[in-house]
Amino acid sequence: MVAVSPAPLDIELAVRPARPISRILNTILQWLTLFAGRLPGEYTVAKLDAFDRFRRNTSPRQLTGIFLLSPVACLAVNVLIESIPLADPATGFYGSLHFQIRNFLVGTIVMMTLITTKMSCMSRISARSWTYISGASVTLAVVAISTNAAIAVIGDVFPVPFSQFAPAGPMGVIGALINHRFLETPDNRARIQRIDRWLAMDLAPVLVYPIFTAVFMALEPQQQLWLSLLLPVLKLFLRYLLWLVIKDELDLVGAATCSVGHLYHILFTVMCLQNAKSLETYAAVVVVNSIQMLLNCRGILQDAYELGRAVEAIKDLAQLSSKDIISIVSWIAQQEQISRSLHRKIPSRLFSTYPEYQRGDYVTKYHNLLLSETYAISKNSRLANLKGRDQRQSSKRHSVPEAKRSSKTTLVEGFKDNLLKTDPSTISTRAASVAELSVVSVVKKNGVTCTQSPQAERIGQCEAFVRCFTSALHQTEIILLRSYITIFAMPFYGLYQALIFTLPNRKYFATMATTTTFDAVANMIYHMLVLCSLELVFLAIYIVLISRQLGYSGVHQLGFVLWSQRILIQGKLIMLPIMIMGFPLAHFGNGSIFQLKP
């Protein structure tokens, strides 16, 4: 046996301690890169499989329906809410019957969206689930109305100051009791608490953004220009906090951060534009959006470059057609050695915790794998809980990698039954190409040359290729969804303001102070449509880049996320505009914020 002695230079480098200042600077730089850059994430193989099925089974007419109908519920709910006539808040609590009806309706709808989102993340929603959702929502809305009524009567004050937030304490207590009684079990308690923290984060910025808007309204034109540049920073901070809470929900984190963080950002951006005192502020918003578009395009090209490098590392894979790359990646990811390796990641990259992607046939195919990994499977063959994950996390650090234990199994052998139902000609090409992969690698570690087995190297390269592609899918999902939300929010806000302008309730909204004529409304709508048209151009650029550089359809991906996560996305599209647009209403007692002076 030959002993390998390290060189003196290696010893010197090994024992030389890193400077504290250097470590601190590196840590700060890494955090700033994470904060301001693209947040990490990737699709699970289960979500990739669901996307593959969606794009094969969805017609162009169905896609068009998804794009056009997704915002309809939001528009209908807001028209219904704002059509309720209100009395002057000066009449006091006993003259506020219509406002109490409106407040009860808003509270019920907001609670229904939150609870429905929560239930959809835990299990598939059934008829019994809707009974629970309706009962819990009405109960919490009654608690909110009763709390504000008690404050108004006992304190002889109306409007109740910050009445949107005053009932938060009692509602939190009652909600926790309902959770404990009907939802929580020892197996799902940790996940329910994580989802609750995420949903609570959705409501936190409702107070932060209006303060920003109120200060903006009081500033001079030049000051408004500089303050408007802080909106993207506020958005990045909110996005980062949301990501910290939900980053382990791999298949939800993209839609969650976009449907909350970006929707907040867009709604308050247009609210600021409505009250802007110069065109320079409007121009600044256009410039910032254009810079964001260029950064998004750069990100897509960077993902394409990384994917190309991953393809080159796998022999013969680059010769396959890129038109069906999703099927290729999905097929490779479902090979036994690779799927086991992906499953051992924390959290699992093989299975999804989102019920919409827990298809019975997909989970059943990996039934034995789940049993061998000490996972529990429910009677309907869906992933029920994640018991044993912590034990595997600690034990796998001391175990031998599966690729090295199984020397008799090849990459493709024994997995023909697991192929997706695709074109037979493409399947045979893929099988032959992947089966012929043979690489011998030499890795240098601490100055010592080590030779990896061809099979282990092959598995590592294929896994890297799969994860590179699923990461690109995650990033493009965020880009497309963010663009779609912008396109929706701009005309929505214009139509909403036009509706408010024609209703008697207009005089009770603080943000309508600068919109006193129909020409002002028309001018504001024109600006919104210009920004919407600009974003449509950006979306077209994204779709072309994704198709040509990454090899899949951005149109199908956007339709897929809007449909498969429709409860989450449409819930936010309904809830957030109701709360944000209603915040300037005098009856909610937020007038002190809009009277702030810089």
UniProtKB/TrEMBL annotation:
> Compositional bias (Basic and acidic residues) spans?
387-405
Q: Region Disordered: list its residue ranges.
A: 385-408
Decide whether keyword Ion transport is in the record: no
Keywords attached to this Swiss-Prot or TrEMBL record, sorted alphabetically, are: Membrane, Transmembrane, Transmembrane helix
Transmembrane ranges? Answer: 63-81, 101-117, 129-154, 160-178, 199-219, 225-245, 484-504, 524-546, 567-588
- This protein's source sits in the domain of life called Eukaryota
Q: What is this protein called?
A: Uncharacterized protein
Tell me which species this is from.
Answer: Phytophthora cactorum
